[in-house]
Design goal:
The structure is a single chain. With 620 residues, this protein is of the alpha+beta class. It has six domains: 89 residues, DNA Primase, Chain A, CATH 3.90.580; 129 residues, DNA primase DNAg catalytic core, N-terminal domain (Alpha-Beta Complex); 114 residues, Dna Topoisomerase Vi A Subunit, Chain: A, domain 2 (3-Layer(aba) Sandwich); 78 residues, no CATH class; 88 residues, DNAb Helicase, Chain A, CATH 1.10.860; 50 residues. A six-stranded mixed sheet has the order 12-14-13-15-16-17, sandwiched between helices. It has a five-stranded antiparallel sheet with strand order 1-2-3-4-5. Strands 6-9-10-11 form a four-stranded antiparallel sheet, covered by helices on one side. Helix 13 links the parallel strand 15 and strand 16. Helix 16 runs antiparallel to helix 17 and helix 19 crosses helix 23. The protein starts with a helix and ends in an 8-residue tail after the last helix.
């Protein structure tokens, strides 16, 4: 986690803009006790269900179950990306941003957006022209031919070539309006210590990256074998710039967006040549990430154009690992995700060249949906006859995903019920459990959502029933207790963090939040609601913090020291219990030698004697 200027700037802006004044500029607010209420603009709100908390500087709609701070409010109201919202709010507060100066840039200067766009357009044409005019053109064009990329695709994607020269770009720009400082600002060149500049993409095949309006905003460069050495990275991408953020862009979306609307889906691949080859074979709804993993902002971008995403994975171990990182992201955001795993050794480009578009379409039609893929993934991980503790963890993991799907959907339809029944039936067979047991546990998880929602109802009791889509429900009761104490009493932060390790967290939101609490604490910075909100870049994270703070405030008169004692005692006993279960599983498996068995039995008997002498229950 970076505690640098960008985080401080965001917090400075957040503290300088009053959320009541901001929301009041869009909605009619009325005071209700210590808060303000308004009709929610995101649903048909007959009673005011949107609350604004001036003390916490947050908003929350209890029907939509959306909430956050000044940034997320403005992003929703104006359909902005975060950086645009930060710029608008910083200007409102009179705070200058290094990434977006508050004064208008002079035309032709490095900070002028029109100049930046013009420089990138000029560079795109220069790269493309050099593909044919360079002394190395023959070998470069031969390389493209070897990769199977035809002339039509070269033109459609404006493929280019950068000379294998440290200063070619700067020389070419001398008779243009684009100074080395402008070229540096848009990521075409880098600066040396002595003040001179060097070409960033020298000796590389160039793939222009365009925004959804078709304007060049960055480049990806693939090193060619004849210009590579042992230090050469295979791909070099443009650095972050005022125009380009790799977390907000998808390669070829400008040419795939219409096809995606017609097909009802977008195919997400990993490489530029994969996408180009897909389009060459008529799969014109294909895009790729720009040198980063698929993330929340990509998801928001995709949802503007389609409701279904087909994620294509290379048939290697790394491809499988990357899936786990994005799977729950899609499930939690109501996106119909399908996973297409290619045969081992193939990437999309190779597969299409070897088998053609018909075989590809057949693979796509057989792509598993996210839940099915998650189930298979867990089954493969635990093996055919997992130990009891491993099976229990796997069941909880899968049920948590099922519960999350239900919570996110906010409604139940026949297709969802059928899919749930299929997953539960398969889990029952795999883990030798009764279907009723699984359903009871799943209902228990969902009931916890309802209980939390009823506790968190807004003051206006005539409002519509609150949604049960609260991310706080993904936390265990024990995890919630930790964060409620952290938010309630700063004196308890140290004892909690120095006693309970990050590994004790189970749910993904708890792992994120506790990890950041640890980083703040070990960096000797206060662990406060404001600090945590400043770090919460996702709406789900902000909602979680708001709900936790609400819950913590309801218990402010409780005995914090006693709650801390019970919390730590529960952790220690739960840890001991897990250790005992693992020891017993090892004994049952019969994989230990006689000496190891004897030591383990002695340890278990000693622990049993200590428990019988008067330990507390670990229930709850």
């Amino acid at each position: 986690m970076d505690f640098g200027a960008s985080q401080d700037t965001k917090e400075q802006v957040r503290q300088s803009v009053d959320i009541v004044e901001l929301v009041g500029g869009y909605l009619q607010l009325r005071r209700q006790g210590r808060i303000y209420v308004a009709h929610c603009p995101w649903h048909d709100d007959s009673r005011p269900s949107l609350q604004v908390n001036p003390e916490r500087q947050t908003f929350k709609c209890w029907v939509c179950d959306i909430g956050g701070d000044i940034f997320s409010f403005l992003m929703r109201m104006e359909r902005l990306e975060f950086r645009e919202a930060l710029e608008m709010l910083a200007e409102r507060a009179g705070i200058a941003l290094t990434m977006a100066p508050s004064t208008k840039a002079e035309p032709g200067s490095p900070g002028d957006k029109r100049t930046q766009l013009a420089a990138l357009d000029w560079a795109t044409k220069l790269f493309h022209r050099h593909l044919f005019e360079s002394p190395h053109s023959r070998s470069v064009l031969d390389y493209l031919a070897e990769r199977g990329i035809n002339d039509q695709m070269r033109e459609r994607f404006h493929i280019g070539f950068s000379a294998p020269d440290w200063e070619w770009m700067v020389r070419e720009a001398r008779n243009t309006p684009f100074t080395p400082a402008v070229l540096e600002r848009v990521g075409l060149v880098g600066a040396r210590d002595g003040g001179s500049h060097y070409d960033r993409f020298r000796g590389r095949l160039i793939f222009p990256i365009r925004d959804v309006r078709g304007r060049p905003i960055a480049f990806g460069g693939r090193v060619l074998p004849e210009f590579a050495d042992e230090r050469s990275a295979k791909y070099v991408n443009s650095p972050e710039s005022p125009l380009y953020s790799k977390s907000n862009q998808l390669y070829a979306l400008d040419v795939a967006r219409d096809a995606a609307a017609d097909a009802g889906s977008i195919v997400v691949m990993e490489g530029y040549t994969d996408v180009i080859m897909a389009h060459q074979h008529g799969i014109t709804n294909a895009v790729a990430c720009c040198g980063t993993a698929l993330g929340e902002r990509h998801l928001q971008l995709l949802r503007r154009f389609t409701d279904q995403v087909v994620l294509v994975l290379d048939g290697d171990e790394a491809g499988q690992r990357r899936t786990a990182e994005v799977l729950e992201l899609f499930i939690a955001n109501q996106v119909d995700l399908r996973i297409l795993t290619l045969p081992d050794g193939f990437d999309p480009c190779d597969f299409l060249r070897a088998h053609g578009s018909q075989a590809w379409q057949s693979m796509v039609s057989g792509a598993r949906d996210a839940l099915e893929y998650k189930l298979v993934q867990v089954e493969d991980r635990v093996g055919p006859n997992p130990p009891t503790h491993v099976a229990t963890q796997a069941v909880e993991e899968l049920l948590s995903v099922l519960a999350k799907l239900d919570v996110t959907a906010g409604k139940t339809d026949s297709a969802a019920l059928l899919r749930e029944a299929q997953v539960l039936g398969r889990m029952a067979r795999k883990f030798h459990l009764r279907d009723e047991e699984l359903r009871d546990r799943l209902k228990a998880i969902r009931r916890s959502v309802s209980r939390i929602s009823s506790v968190s109802r807004p003051i206006d009791t005539e409002s519509e029933p609150p949604s049960t889509t609260s991310v706080i429900a993904t936390l265990s009761r024990w995890e919630r207790e930790i964060f409620e104490l952290v938010l309630s009493d700063s004196a308890l932060v140290g004892p909690i963090i120095e006693t309970i390790p990050l590994e004790a967290m189970v749910s993904r939101p708890a792992i994120w939040l506790y990890g950041y609490c640890q980083e703040l604490h070990f960096a000797h910075q206060p662990v406060t609601f404001d600090r945590l909100m400043a770090a919460a870049t996702l709406e789900q994270q902000q909602k979680l913090l708001i709900d936790l703070d609400e819950s913590a405030n309801e218990k402010h008169e409780s005995d914090h020291d006693q709650r801390l004692h019970d919390l730590v005692e529960h952790y220690r006993q739960h840890h001991d219990q897990q250790s005992r279960r693992a020891d017993i599983a090892n004994l049952r498996e019969g994989t230990l030698d006689s000496h190891q068995e004897e030591e383990l039995l002695s340890k278990l008997f000693d622990n049993l004697k200590r428990r019988q002498s008067g330990s507390l229950s670990t229930d709850g």
